[in-house]
Amino acid sequence: MSKIMTRQFKQHGLSLIEIMVAITISMILLTGVVQLFISNKKTYSAVEELSRLQENARFAMEFISRDIRRAGFQGCRSRREIPSHIIANPGPTGDEFDVNTAISGEDNVSSVTDVVDGTDIISLQFGGSCGGTLTGNMDADNAQIHLTAPNTCNLDQGGLFMISDCESADIARISNTPCNADPDDPSYNCSSGTQNAAHANNVNISNRLSKAYQSDAEIFALISRNYSIRVNPTGNRALYRENIAGIAEELVEGIENMQALYGEDTTGDRVPNRYVPAHQISDMQDVVSVRISLLAYTIEDRVAQDNQTYAYEINDYNSFPTGTSFTAADKRIRRAFTSTISLRNRLK
Predict the structure, then answer these.
(1) Which of 6, 18, 183, 246 is 20 to 30 A from residue 92's alpha carbon, by CA?
(2) Residue 30 belongs to what H/E stretch?
(3) Is the predicted pLDDT of residue 79 greater than 60, yes or no?
């Protein structure tokens, strides 16, 4: 009797159906991972842009605040207590150094060269310490002033300077050609360690200062700075600072708007009684503080998913009236920052 032999076959590997199921599950898991990655990336980018926005706003506010506090500085006494004696001819102008106000402003400008329409301009003037100490007492009120060198006062023929002590202050022009006392300048040539500054009447209405200053007096550099909002080369708005020579430099990118209210002392007690825009101030010498509002935005667009609607409590009178809401034309994130700063030299 013959035997029938049967061979049993064992399955190796996966069936087509199992492979398809595995692929489907893998695709679902991979899709979830990709979506999670994209979501995390968007969140990270938004947080990073917002952090940069806040950092830019802090830097911008610090630049402006520091100079507002210094406005009107002319040594150890404020301009209210010792008005400057001016013999310079021509005297300082608002473009160079406004000795009468120390601070001024323009509201919601229009057609000002390079400045964004609807923003404010803040102008500040003060004396800057430059190491210009006297080597000794002046022989007379019309004598040359002898300064220690090196210093960074940048005294040039025809240029303005201020000399001050705790009792008096004079503003005059240099009539001679002082040696170059800047130690960082290759043309430094004050080899004797002394810099001489004359103030003859060819560039002054008189060659006499208000007095012969003693060795405790100091020469100050005249500093004038205009803060404004402009468009930088990359097309973003930024905070700019213009110096006494009319040269503007970009300080902080991403500052879209700047508005200012001025704290006016109407009773003479050096305390602000009201905050109003510059054009409502009758005498800028009565300003004792400034309230600055900056509107900052993210440098990158499409940070937000949709165009954002904002309501700002910002000091503005045309562009963003207080409490008015508006919808942005882009997907940037915006934040408003406000600070009130005192003019220290008006509070003494």
Answers:
(1) 183
(2) helix 16-70
(3) no
pLDDT, residue 318, reads: 47
Q: How far apart are CA 297 and CA 113, in angstroms?
A: 23
Average pLDDT of span 31-51? 73
Show the tokens assigned to 166: 């705790």
Answer yes or no: is 312 within a domain. yes
Which domain covers residue 238, as residue numbers? 52-346
Closest by CA to 297, choosing from 253, 333, 339, is 333
Per-residue pLDDT, 2:
55
Is 143 domain-assigned? Answer: yes
How many structural domains is the chain composed of? 1
| Rounded Cα–Cα distance for residues 219 and 277 (Å) | 34
pTM comes to 0.77
Which residue do the tokens 């601070």 mark? 103
Q: What phi, psi does 131 have (nearest 5°)?
A: 80, 20
- Asked if residue 36 belongs to a domain, the reply is no
- Cα-Cα-Cα-Cα dihedral of 157, 160, 161, 166, to 10°? 150
Report the pLDDT averaged over residues 228-247: 93
3-state secondary structure of 284: helix
Scored b (16 or more CB within 10 A) or e, 220-233 reads bbbbbbbbbbbeee
**259 vs 60: CA distance, rounded Å:** 13
**Nearest C-alpha neighbor of 128 from the set 152, 149, 150:** 152
How many residues belong to the chain?
348
Give residue 280's pLDDT band: very low, low, confident or very high (50, 70, 90): very high
Q: Do the beta carbons of residue 179 and residue 195 sit within 8 Å?
A: yes
Q: Where are the alpha helices (DSSP H) in 144-234?
A: none
77 has pLDDT over 50: yes
pLDDT for 189 equals 85
Q: Domain for residue 135, yes or no? A: yes
